[in-house]
Amino acid sequence: MTNLDLIGVGKRVDSLKSKQKRSLLKNVQSVAYQKIHLELVRTMDKLYRIEELGTVGWTLLDERSVKLTKEQAKARLESALAEGLNPNRLRAIPEINV
After folding, report:
1. Are residues 23 and 7 located together in one domain of the fold?
2. Rounded Cα distance, 92 and 77, in Å
3. pLDDT computed for residue 12 by the predictor
4. Beta carbons of 65 and 50 less than 8 angstroms apart
5. What share of the chain is helix, strand, coil (3-state, %, to 5)?
6. pLDDT tens by residue, 37-66
7. How many domains does the chain have?
8. CA dihedral 11, 12, 17, 18 (to 10 degrees)
9. Are residues 93 and 48 in contact, defined by beta-carbon separation less than 8 angstroms?
C-alpha cells in the first residue's frame, strides 16, 4: 500500500461514525495480530518428539524424547538405532502443543 493509498483510507475513515471507527479498529488490530502470529509461527523452529510402536500403539520413547529440534531428533533416533531398536518401530513427529 502506498502513501497515497493510506491518505485515501484516512479520508474514508474520517468520514465514519465513531462506532464504525471502533469496529474497524478492532478488525484491523485483529488482522494485524493474526499476521504477526502467523509470521511468528512460520519462523519458529518446529519441535519434535520420538515415539516407539509398542503393543499399546505409539508411545513416547522416553522422557528425553520431547521438544527436540530437528537435529536433536535425528541424533536421538540414531542413538535409539545404536541401542538396537527396530527402525520400523520408531518415528519422529512434530510436537502438537508446544
Report:
1. yes
2. 8
3. 59
4. yes
5. 55, 15, 30
6. 566 555 566 899 999 999 999 999 999 999
7. 2
8. -70
9. yes
pTM score > 0.70 for this model? no
Cell numbers linked to 43: 519462523
Helical (H) or strand (E) element with 51: strand 48-54
Same domain, 56 and 71: yes
Does 9 share its domain with 39? yes
How buried is 61 (Cβ within 10 angstroms: 0-12 exposed, 13-18 middle, 19+ buried)? buried
Closest C-alpha to 50, from 78, 82, 19: 78
Instruction: Give the total residue count for the chain.
Output: 98
Q: What are phi and psi of 71, to 5 degrees?
A: -65, -40
